Design the sequence.
């Protein structure tokens, strides 16, 4: 059974999980999401909770529903940029460590100078 | 929206002891509700009143708009906390026996659930462990198509694997939108992902009631923490 953070509504954690899978490419644009029941079984969660997560994702334009067919990932380019931006918590985390935005920016610039402007995923794997 | 279960100023006394003191609540159709509270807070009494097994001292308990009683029995599947199955029967015999009482019991679904619960049809009830017995009780209740399911402490006093199997089966067979489930429990953290609403009872009174997500937001603490806060 997956571990949920009891301080955060479960539907929100499921939304984050799905957004994460879209950003990482595990779920492709236009691709079909599992049915509510399938996902309820995977996560061991009340189907109403999954349905709520899907509804909220639809409201945010991240997924859409085709009546009778199921739920699909949006094909609009814009949402991926939005999703990535929302997920990129660099400035938030830096600020929680007490860095100002200018300091954070300087730190990021220094990092790029040192490591080059490569894809972040490569660095993560080292 | 029609409510699945309604309590109007519901009072229950056992002799001079007040078990429920004027409860008012409305549970919408199609929700899974956790009924929380310490021992003696009135949880079992409330479930028995909705099951039509006992009568209110005053006020009323309504099931799908009708007073709980003989007429509503076919609409409610109730699982008591104690073991009510006959020790000398086998799992298979107990299933067939239950079908005589409950015309809404789906035999094929019961067999499927019993297999998922890893129970052999030929096993004697008397030889089942506590966890197995709890799993069988739940399988027989989940195999019923009654729109209301009342579970009294389905998770208490049994091993973690059995608890997990029970929660899995509950989520898998639950019919969203049409079926309403109340389960009383102390295992808040473990069952949290299965319920929509929470009812907190204390000394026969409703102290807190709401959508789990809303309670999280309003109180800025987990249901488990709320539970600890209220009862300590």
Sequence:
């Amino acid at each position: 059974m997956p571990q949920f953070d009891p301080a955060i509504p479960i539907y929100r954690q499921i939304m984050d999980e799905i957004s994460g899978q879209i950003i990482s490419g595990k779920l492709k644009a236009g691709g079909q999401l599992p049915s509510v029941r399938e996902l309820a079984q995977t996560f061991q969660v009340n189907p109403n909770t999954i349905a709520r997560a899907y509804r909220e994702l639809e409201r945010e334009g991240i997924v859409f529903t085709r009546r009778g067919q199921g739920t699909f990932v949006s094909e609009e380019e814009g949402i991926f940029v939005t999703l990535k931006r929302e997920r990129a918590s660099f400035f938030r985390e830096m600020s929680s460590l007490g860095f100002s935005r200018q300091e954070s920016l300087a730190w990021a610039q220094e990092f790029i100078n040192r490591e080059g402007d490569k894809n972040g995923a490569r660095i993560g794997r080292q | 929206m029609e409510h699945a279960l309604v309590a109007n100023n519901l009072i229950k006394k056992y002799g001079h002891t007040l078990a429920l003191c004027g409860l008012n609540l409305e549970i919408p159709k199609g929700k899974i509700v956790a009924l929380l509270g310490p021992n003696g807070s009135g949880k079992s009494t409330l479930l028995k009143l909705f099951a039509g097994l006992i009568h209110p001292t005053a006020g009323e308990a309504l099931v799908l708009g009708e007073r709980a009683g003989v007429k509503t029995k076919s609409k409610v599947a109730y699982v008591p906390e104690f073991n009510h199955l006959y020790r000398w029967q086998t799992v298979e015999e107990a299933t067939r026996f239950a079908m005589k009482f409950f015309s809404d019991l789906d035999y094929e679904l019961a067999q499927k659930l019993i297999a998922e619960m890893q129970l052999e049809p030929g096993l004697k009830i008397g030889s089942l462990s506590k966890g197995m017995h709890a799993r069988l009780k739940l399988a027989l209740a989940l195999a019923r198509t009654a729109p209301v399911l009342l579970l009294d402490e389905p998770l208490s006093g049994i091993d973690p694997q059995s608890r997990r199997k029970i929660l899995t089966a509950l989520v898998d067979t639950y019919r969203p939108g049409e079926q309403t489930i109340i389960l009383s429990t102390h295992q808040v953290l473990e069952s949290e992902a299965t319920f929509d609403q929470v009812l907190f009872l204390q000394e026969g009174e409703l102290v807190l009631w709401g959508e789990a997500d809303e309670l999280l937001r309003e109180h800025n603490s987990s249901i488990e923490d709320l539970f600890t806060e209220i009862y300590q």
User: Anything to note?
Assistant: The first strand of chain B starts at residue 3 and ends at 14. Chain B has one domain: 3-231.
